[in-house]
Amino acid sequence: MKQYARYYSAGFIYNSRTKKLLLALKEDTTEQTAVVWSLFGGLNKRKENPQATFQREILEATGVRLPKKSVQSLYDYKNDDFGVDRHVFYVLALDIKNLQKRLKHLGFAYEWVSLDAMFDQNLSKRTKQDLTYFYRELEAKERKDAPVAQPQIASEAFL
């Protein structure tokens, strides 16, 4: 039997208009706390690529089928806690037509969490790390997109 590489794909849906993220409420066996907010995610199945794994996990948890083109890669790294690579993705909510109507409660707890309040939540260790990375990327993009102030020229009266 051929062995397939095992990895974990995780991510979230982000609404840039409301500045909220859709997060999952899960039991966490690695932390002292029994329940934490985390990203949607799971291990790959056989020949699934990381993006397909993330899309499947969102579908299983929320009932929403993500268009392939809407999934954005955030970053990936080696998760030494579990000895697997972790691939992190996000989707802009505005890229999904009728998202609120399509979200189904399938015995899975999830909620929109404000970007400003996300670090006040009880987050899993890796979720906190991944959202910190996302937050820094957003800040960098906002700085890059911000209009550059034109230098003011001193009047000749002050020269």
Describe the protein's architecture and organization.
By secondary structure, this protein is an alpha+beta fold. The protein has three helices and seven strands. It has a single domain (about 5-130), classed as Nucleoside Triphosphate Pyrophosphohydrolase, CATH 3.90.79. Strands 1, 2, 3, 4, 5, 6 and 7 form a seven-stranded mixed sheet that branches. Strand 5 and strand 6 (about 85-90) form a beta hairpin. The N and C termini lie far apart (about 80 Å). Residues about 155-159 have low confidence and may be disordered.
SSE topology:
Layout: E1 7-15, E2 20-27, E3 35-38, E4 40-43, H1 50-62, E5 71-79, E6 84-92, H2 99-102, E7 109-114, H3 125-145
Parallel strand pairs: 1-6
Antiparallel strand pairs: 1-2, 1-4, 2-3, 2-7, 5-6
